[in-house]
From TrEMBL, chains A, B:
InterPro entries: 4pyrrol_Mease, 4pyrrol_Methylase_sf, 4pyrrole_Mease_sub1, 4pyrrole_Mease_sub2, Cbl_synth_CobJ/CibH_dom, CobE/GbiG_C, CobE/GbiG_C_sf, Precorrin_MeTrfase. Residues 408-422 have a biased composition (Basic and acidic residues). Residues 402-422 are annotated as: Disordered. Residues 168-373 form the Tetrapyrrole methylase domain. One of its GO terms (molecular function) is precorrin-3B C17-methyltransferase activity. It comes from Streptomyces mesophilus. This is Precorrin-3B C(17)-methyltransferase. Pfam families: CbiG_C, TP_methylase. Keywords: Cobalamin biosynthesis, Methyltransferase, S-adenosyl-L-methionine, Transferase. It is an enzyme of class 2 (transferase). The keyword Transferase applies.
Length: 422, 422
């Protein structure tokens, strides 16, 4: 465990060197090289006037005894009162690392294995070295150790901790379902993950792509908040986490609750995916050729008044609409209501596409009209795309024109833009 | 050429048989099998009372002489006046194929190598056999041949044509640019294409994925209509065509003009891709966590009044907006105007994401606010995402909440829907 890893540098298929990434000292094999991560934090305490040689000898001896490399020391840490103690400041300088300090209150709040009354009296915290090493949430490797000068009492203490690596949360869209609509980037992120968090049915969809040993934290429907919190908490522990969602994980899905939880102490990577509106559009023809809006009809998340206002806006502004979550067993009047709002501004023959489980084995695609759509044929696995006044059924395909003014227009710069800007 | 192809059936890596798909007769090798496509059309002419044996002998002899298999005959074809001529009807019956007939006007309109006055007088077209074989746009393999009965004049003619295979137009979204955001399905379609049609800069992006020999029809900016027409025309010739676009080819791109041209005589396959709004969203955080609209600010394609109406609608209904084609050299007032419309309903600190060339080498990502955005930093390679009143900058990431009523809600069916419906 810890900050140890190994990789191979290869050229034309041959191994030329073995690189190890570790803060531990060890005998290198002939073809090995080592990289030192800045992973160690050394907590330091010292009496007033402690000589730099004593502090430095303590630190170096402690690291050597523990089999740890001084090159992996990221910083020295101590209490505010010792911020200008010459022996500590100079030790940091000779090691070439920064010195950071904490208030007695911050340090007193850190549970440590070896508290003591002496520093409590002197600087207001029962531990300096151990607490300063641990205060940022690291793992204690060497407990408090005293210096051993010849012929007088020790004037310095130190403790060594390994800080957790920075966690990484990848929010991964799996696409609409078919394996060949999963992007290579999504696949790579799944392979990279040490911890996978997701809805059980989506986990099943990609379980074969995970590395052996990946920790899978799957949960059932309704546990969205819990999944978001779990993913962020695992990343905070320094794990490489993949949080999965179908389609694009940022669209009505897990990215939003997870990022609402995440602070800047973890890295976040979003992998976009083919969302249901696009998957349905490709099956129907080209309904999204011009402006289009995605609206969820689920009024569990959003007051119906807000949804209705958005549907009315789309109707009045003649925007193509894709409805997500259009209808469920207990929620049956919202879709007819939404369609009737659109029908106030669009002809009965306006094309409507009904796509269920796009790209999955049981996919179904139907092209109908605003007048003819039977809402009873729609369920939660379906997205419904309603054309605008320009949308046409052309040879059984649903097409919304881009408009063709460009044909006459000599401004080729704009043509570039029109396509390249997408 | 023609309807000939070969493939291998393999089991555990071993070749077990070689299957050929062809309408040609030939000696089979020991481990070969053959599949017969229904590719041949036999045009037939006959005098009144022509015996079935004479008609059948003519057809079978003609096919044999040309090295063509009778099992590949899809149908017999003649003029309407011969629809009930017993020799022809029975020949079709014995061959097990349908008989189709055409009006003299339809046949007279087909250019043929061997027109004649006799049928023109008799049935009103200068060719029956050749014209009937060719009327659906097939390729003539055997010109008009007469029967050779012993001791009397010929009473039957025939000609053989091979019909063009049904063309296939794949409209392929390449994603935002990075190779690892190109879906495997898109890659497969590029490999499958015999003809590739696209904007030169997008062709450059994927040229290495094409099979050797793929015909590449690339054109420059401003030739959108021409590309659409070319792609459809190539498919109509029976080709396997891939028409490419960046992002999702159905969003402000080539699918719409191409499908406006296409009729039902070709197959169309759409391959959805990661559109710019999604690629930008993944980089920004989770701005599209709830309802969102894509609006193009290019008023070359659309009157500004329509665009303004749509922006106003998004503003009033509090919908997150992604602007495509937001600004170009000659078009600089539209974005500020659109932002000012949104600002009438949203606070100055509303998060705004500015993403240029998402996933490409020169990608840039900026998170700013409605008040602070400098439109001069935006160009046609950029998409601009404006949050709604609920959107927040959380730890430097742009997040639009889904809302969390589900936490309290016991209706787990709806939870399923909320995520699975995407």
């Amino acid at each position: 465990g810890g900050a140890t890893g190994a990789g191979e540098v290869t050229g034309s298929g041959e191994v030329t060197a073995r690189i190890r990434l570790t803060d531990r000292t060890f005998g290198l094999a002939p073809e090995e090289a080592v990289l030192r991560p800045p992973s160690l934090i050394v907590g330091v305490g010292a009496s007033k006037g402690a000589p730099v040689d004593e502090v430095l000898a303590l630190i170096e001896g402690t690291l050597a005894d523990a089999g740890l490399s001084p090159r992996s020391v990221a910083r020295l840490a101590t209490v505010d009162a010792k911020a200008e103690e010459p022996g500590i400041v100079e030790a940091a300088g000779r090691l070439g690392v920064p010195l950071v300090t904490y208030s007695p209150e911050q340090l007193a709040a850190v549970p440590v294995p070896n508290p003591s009354d002496a520093p409590l009296t002197a600087v207001g915290t029962p531990s300096v070295a151990e607490a300063a090493a641990l205060v940022e949430g690291a793992q204690l490797l060497v407990p408090k150790t005293k210096s051993a000068p010849e012929g007088r009492p020790a004037m310095a203490t130190c403790a060594v901790a390994r800080r957790a690596p920075r966690g990484r949360l990848a929010v991964v869209g799996l696409g609409p379902g078919a394996r060949d609509l999963l992007t290579p980037r999504a696949k790579d992120e799944l392979r990279r993950a040490a911890v996978l968090v997701g809805l059980d049915q989506y986990v099943d969809q990609i379980r074969d792509l995970l590395r052996p040993g990946t920790v899978v934290l799957e949960s059932g429907l309704g546990a969205e908040e819990e999944r978001a919190r779990t993913a962020v908490a695992e990343a905070r522990k320094g794990q490489a986490v993949a949080l999965i969602g179908s389609g694009d994980a940022g669209v009505y899905a897990m990215a939003s609750p997870a990022l609402a939880e995440a602070s800047d102490d973890i890295d976040v990577v979003g992998v976009p995916g083919v969302t249901a509106a696009l998957a349905a559009g490709a099956l129907l023809g080209a309904p999204l050729g011009h402006d289009h809006v995605s609206i969820s009809l689920s009024d569990l998340h959003t007051p119906w008044e807000v949804i209705e206002r958005r549907v009315r806006a789309a109707a009045e502004a003649d925007i193509v609409v894709t409805f997500y979550n259009p209808r469920s067993r207990g929620r049956d009047w919202q879709l007819p209501k939404a369609l009737s709002l659109l029908a106030e501004h669009r002809a009965p023959r306006t094309p409507v596409g009904v796509v269920r489980n796009a790209s999955r084995a049981d996919e179904s695609v139907r092209l109908t009209t605003l007048a003819a759509l039977d809402p009873a044929t729609v369920d939660m696995m379906t997205v419904v795309t309603v054309g605008n006044t320009a949308t046409r059924d052309i040879a059984g395909r649903m097409v919304t024109p881009r408009g063709y003014r460009w044909q006459q227009d000599p401004d080729t710069k704009e043509h570039a833009a029109a396509e390249a800007g997408r």
